[in-house]
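ligand=zinc ion
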Amino acid sequence: MGLTTDPNNPDLKRYTGPEEPAPQNKVYLVLSDEELAKGFVRPVRTAYVHKKCGSLTTMGQKLSETYARDPKFYGATYCCACSAHFPVSEFLWDGTDQEVGS
Ligand SMILES: [Zn+2]
């Protein structure tokens, strides 16, 4: 899995609705270091739980920081147990009752 700060990267995939199980996308969009340096509006959290299956998925630092800088940056995220992306509102930050994306 790779990361890019270029919204026009041709390997980026947009979530368009329910998916068949598949590996994670080749590339995910993250905010630039310059944007991240403007400060976080949420704690940097690195793991979330899918409400439906109860499984924990962890993320890398840049993805976690992107959520912390801009909680609504992503519309959907990946569940490792279900092997698919789902709307962020279907996940809770690990150890909290706060929905991802809120
Ligand atoms: Zn799941």
